């Protein structure tokens, strides 16, 4: 393997001094445009790559930013990362992405790694409930997702969960579904509490006792939705079953469980998702879902971070609206069957 090119190689190829080459690659105003272009071409020709860590130690700027998301395998969070990367790239910087896997210790380890990499700032979907964990981080940061509500003094961006849940429930009512069964996330997640609270509010407005709702816990994964759907079908064996899932991965897992049980969606079971991941368009039937603006969430969180660094901090929390994507996973019960409640028929 050949020797890695250095700034000396670039300077020699460009016919300038080492210090001039370094200033040119740092966009110093002391270097004229012709020399800067000559050095840039020499760097490309030699295969030279700058050591961002070393540059950051000298200049106080690394050109690196961090993103810590809870599940990098979930397409929703991949879209969030893409949005954040767009803004970071537009500002001439690079983004380091970590997945906490909903684990507090892993999140803390990632934050330490980002600090050691001398990132200029970070975007985090927090697992930790402790504001001191982020205070010790020592760099500017913005927060994203429902969990960020635990930190009211920090700029944060999230989906309007209340608006989204009500949008989904209103659509179910319009199609003859009075009160769906629910597949939710773990009890420890703030997003679950907000989702469930919004469902309860909607039920009470329609004189439906929330206690009649069938509820199963998932874990925001395909496998978790599959297992939760099996439990729901065991609890309600008669009548049409309507299920509102707290994310699309669980909804897609639920659809598989329905097929494996010899039942059909939407003839026997109607399923409504939540997130709007692209895979929902390719399932059979297509998954009707509430789409959260994943990429825009990432973009807005990154912009909030740059505004914070520039001394233009955003106040409080910003909520972005969601939209309904209608496909084929919901039956129209106003046409085929009378209005019914998902919990009806239980022994």
From TrEMBL:
Signal peptide: none annotated. The keyword Transcription applies. GO terms for molecular function: DNA-binding transcription factor activity; transcription cis-regulatory region binding. Residues 5-59 form the HTH lacI-type domain. Keywords: DNA-binding, Transcription, Transcription regulation. The keyword DNA-binding applies. It holds the Pfam family LacI. SMART domains: HTH_LACI. PROSITE patterns: HTH_LACI_1, HTH_LACI_2. It comes from the Bacteria. This is Transcriptional regulator.
């Amino acid at each position: 393997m050949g020797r890695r090119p250095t700034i000396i190689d670039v300077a020699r190829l460009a016919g300038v001094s080492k210090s001039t080459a370094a200033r040119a690659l740092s966009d110093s105003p002391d270097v004229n445009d012709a020399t800067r272009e000559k050095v840039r071409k020499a760097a490309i020709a030699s295969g030279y790559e700058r050591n961002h860590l070393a540059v950051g130690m000298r200049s106080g700027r690394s050109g690196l930013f961090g993103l810590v998301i809870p599940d990098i395998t979930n397409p929703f969070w991949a879209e969030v990362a893409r949005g954040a990367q767009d803004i970071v790239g537009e500002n001439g910087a690079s983004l380091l992405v970590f997945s906490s896997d909903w684990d507090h210790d892993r999140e803390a380890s990632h934050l330490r790694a980002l600090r050691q990499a001398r990132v200029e700032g970070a975007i985090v979907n927090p697992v930790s409930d402790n504001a001191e964990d982020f205070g010790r981080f020592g760099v500017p940061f913005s927060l994203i997702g429902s969990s960020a509500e635990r930190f009211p003094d920090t700029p944060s961006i999230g989906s309007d969960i209340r608006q989204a849940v009500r949008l989904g429930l209103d659509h179910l009512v319009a199609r003859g579904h009075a009160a769906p069964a629910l597949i939710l996330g773990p009890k420890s997640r703030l997003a679950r509490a907000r989702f469930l609270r919004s469902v309860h509010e909607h039920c009470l407005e329609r004189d439906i006792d929330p206690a009649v709702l069938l509820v199963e816990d998932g874990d925001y994964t395909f496998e978790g939705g599959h297992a939760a759907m099996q439990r729901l079908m065991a609890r309600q064996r008669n009548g049409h079953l309507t299920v509102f899932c707290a994310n699309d991965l669980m909804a897609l897992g639920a659809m598989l469980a329905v097929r494996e049980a010899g039942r059909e969606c939407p003839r026997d079971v109607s399923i409504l998702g939540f997130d709007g991941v692209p895979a929902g368009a390719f399932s059979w039937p297509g998954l009707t879902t509430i789409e959260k603006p994943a990429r825009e969430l990432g973009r807005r969180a990154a912009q909030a971070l740059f505004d914070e660094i520039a001394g233009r901090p955003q106040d409080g929390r910003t909520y972005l609206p969601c939209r309904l994507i209608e496909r084929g996973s919901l039956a129209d019960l106003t046409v085929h069957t009378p209005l019914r409640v998902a919990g009806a028929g239980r022994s």
